[in-house]
Design a protein that fits this description.
It contains 13 helices and ten strands. Strand 7, helix 4 and strand 8 form a beta-alpha-beta unit. Helix 1 packs parallel to helix 13 and helix 7 crosses helix 9. It folds into two domains: about 210 residues, von Willebrand factor, type A domain (Rossmann fold); about 130 residues, no CATH class. It has a six-stranded mixed beta sheet with strand order 6-5-3-7-8-9, sandwiched between helices. A two-stranded antiparallel sheet has the order 1-2. Strands 4-10 form a two-stranded antiparallel sheet. With about 400 residues, the chain is of the alpha/beta class.
């Protein structure tokens, strides 16, 4: 199976140079990364209402994806650090196909977080019909959910219209989801009483999930910490350890830098820091285009690397020279990631103290808050342990 990826680069210089192309179109083989034996896993599908009034929800989602993923940085299940797969759907936009109930799968369950982030930043809104039952059923049936009962699997659906709209009853869809071991959490964008009356709470109850409410137009509160500047600086150094190869390597390296720049533009929401923290963890995994990650796979064959698919600095090296070049980058990456993790640990303590000092009487929930709290609470019931 083949897929086409289009990457648009806009002269980015915030986090390092790009390759000088305004637009790169490449084709790559779709790959399924098999986890290591016994490796823990987390699967989360995010279903976003993209009808006309939901621009605030999209803004929260695109800047806070990294924060939700980072919830699992300190987690372990049976002594194993879990990796996170994220799927993304939009529904309720009139420019989508009516025969598909105005639903679009944007990304299947994937570890390719850069691609998910890029798609979130590209989302737009306009009026439409919001069919919650239909999109839950679609996500339940077509995503490749892990069959193990030990894996934390959850759907988060967010919207503001009645939960019961559309040709497919949401109670049926929620029952189908939990029968597969997939929890359904419902997020109503608006007042709690409206969410209850609109059926959002009923859906969560049927699928062992939580009914949540947020102010989707609220600006995400980011507490600046003394460690932030150094974490973002280390992110720039970290980029230098990624070696694009193959037909997609150059374009994907550009995408990495493009996503950094987008996060930096949203730094008041903490997006730049949270993205850097995610890149400092094992959840940022790019074996499809980065030689350092790819070379860790059991079936990686150094002899099959073609000169024209390598960056210029590796083409002149012999096989042993190439291995050493990659090993040096891997070592440097590990050192930088360790520094980021240490800084983030100190940052979390600082932020926790500041939050405790802040008056919370007027604080309103945002998407990142309710999702991070919920995944942590629910994953604990599956045996995931979190370091404080």
């Amino acid at each position: 199976m083949k897929k086409t990826i289009t990457t648009v680069v806009m002269g980015l210089t915030l986090f390092g140079p790009v390759f000088g192309h305004d637009k790169v179109k490449v084709t790559e083989e779709a790959k399924v990364e098999a986890p290591a034996e016994g490796q823990a896993k987390v699967q989360i599908a995010i279903l976003l209402d993209t009808s006309g009034s939901m621009s605030g929800l999209i803004d929260q989602a695109k800047t806070q994806l990294w924060k939700v993923v980072n919830t699992f940085i300190t987690a372990k299940q049976n002594g194993k650090v879990p990796f996170v797969e994220v799927a993304l759907y939009e529904y309720g936009k009139s420019s989508l196909r009516g025969e598909d109930n105005w639903i679009r799968q944007i990304q299947p369950l994937t570890r390719d977080l850069d691609k998910v982030s890029e798609e979130l930043f590209a989302l737009t809104t306009n009026g439409g019909e919001e069919y919650c039952g239909a999109v839950i059923q679609k996500a339940t049936s077509e995503l490749k959910w892990d069959s193990s009962g030990d894996v934390y699997k959850a759907i988060f659906i967010a919207g503001n219209e009645a939960f019961t709209q559309g040709p497919i009853q949401p109670d049926k869809s929620c029952k189908e989801a939990i029968a597969k071991g997939v929890i359904v959490n419902t997020i109503h964008c608006g007042r709690e009483v409206e969410g209850v009356n609109g059926g959002w709470k009923d859906g969560a109850v049927l699928a062992d999930g939580r009914f949540l409410t947020i102010d989707h137009n609220q600006a995400v509160v980011h507490i600046e910490a003394p460690q932030d500047e150094e974490i973002v600086k280390l992110n720039t150094e970290l980029n230098d350890t990624y070696i694009g190869f193959g037909r997609t390597g150059r374009a994907r390296k550009e995408m990495q830098l493009a996503n950094d720049a987008k996060a930096f533009k949203e730094k008041t929401s903490g997006a730049a820091v949270q993205r850097a923290v995610a890149k400092g963890s094992s959840n940022y995994y790019n074996s499809g285009w980065d030689i350092v990650d790819a070379s860790k796979q059991k079936n990686f064959d150094w002899t099959k690397l073609k000169d024209e698919e390598l960056p210029e600095e590796m083409r002149k090296l012999d096989l042993e020279g190439r291995k050493k070049f990659v090993a040096d980058k891997e070592k440097k990456r590990g050192e930088i990631q360790k520094k980021i993790q240490t800084l983030n640990s100190a940052r979390n303590k600082f932020v926790a103290k500041k939050r405790a000092e802040m008056a919370k009487t007027d604080e309103k929930n945002t998407l990142d808050q309710v999702m991070s709290e919920t995944v942590r609470e629910q994953a604990k019931k599956k045996g995931y342990q979190f370091s404080e």
